[in-house]
Amino acid sequence: MLGDRRNNKIACCSPTTAGVIVAVIEFILCILSVYGLIRNFDLFGQSYFLWFLIGIISILIILSVIILLCYAIKTDNARLLIPHLFVQIFLILFLIIVALVVFLLIVFGAHRGIRRLLGHDSYHMSDEDTEYLGLLIILIYLIVAAIEVVFLYLIYKLYLYLKDYTRVQMNDPFMNNPVYTANWQVPTKRAPNGYGSPDSGDIYPYGP
Predict the structure, then answer these.
(1) Sign of dihedral through CA atoms 55, 57, 60, 62?
(2) In the record, which residues are listed under signal peptide (predicted)?
C-alpha cells in the first residue's frame, strides 16, 4: 500500500515535496497578510485595531502550524500534521462565512454594516466604494479559500503517506515474514535415532 502511494505522485512531485511547496506558499501569504494588516491599520486607524489584533494572532497560529508541517516532513511524523489540517478547515469555513455575510450585506444595501464588519466604520467612504470593497473582499476570500481547499487535499495526502511510512518503520517486514513467525517443532527422542526422514514426512531437523 505504501508503495502505491509513493508511485502516485501529486502534480509530478512526491507528497513531501508538495508539503514543502504548501509551507512556502503559506509563509508568503502570511507575509503579505502582515503587510496588509499594517497598511490598513495605518490607513483606518483605531477603528481597525480589533481586526488588526485578530489578524496578527491568526497569522501567529498559522506560522506555528507551518513550522509543525516542516518538522513533520523532516521527522516523518504524521501526527504533527493534524493541527495544520484543523487550522485549514477552520480557515476555509471562516473565509466562506465572511464572504457570504458580505454578499448578503451588499444585496440588502447595508453598506454601513460592511464598513463595520471590515473595521472601517469611522472611515469616510461612499456607498459605491464600500460596495466595490465588499465585492473585492468576496473575490479575494473565495480565491484564498479555494487555494486552501487544494492545500488541504495535499496535506491530507501527505498525512496518509507519512502514516503508512511510520507503520512500515514500526513493523519490520522481515521479522513479520512467515518463515520467522512459524511455530517450528522439534521431534522427540522417541523417533528412530532422535531424527526423522524427509521421505517419510517427518519433522525437521533431520539427522546425519
Answers:
(1) negative
(2) none
Using only the alpha carbons of the chain, give its radius of gyration.
Answer: 30
- List own/partner pairs for 28-35 with CB under 8 A and 24 or more apart: 29/144, 30/59, 30/62, 30/63, 30/66, 33/59, 34/59
Q: By residue range, what is the domain housing residue 32? A: 15-170
Residues 164, 78: contact at Cβ < 8 Å? Answer: no
Q: How many domains does the chain have?
A: 1
User: What is the per-residue pLDDT across 49-96, written as a single tens digit (0 to 9) for each?
Assistant: 888 899 999 999 999 999 999 999 999 999 999 999 999 999 999 999
| Torsion 71-76-77-83 (CA) sign | positive
DSSP-derived secondary structure letter, 76: T
What are the beta bridge partners of residue 10? 13
Q: At which residue does the C-alpha cell 494572532 appear?
A: 57
Packing angle, helices 49-75 and 82-107, rounded to 10: 150
- Asked whether residue 34 is assigned to any structural domain, the reply reads yes
Burial call 57-92: b when 16+ CB within 10 Å, e when fewer: ebbeebeebbebbbebbeeeebebbeebbebbeebb
Residue with cell string 473565495: 142
* 181 within some domain: no
What pTM was estimated for this model as a whole? 0.71
Give domain status of residue 166, yes or no: yes
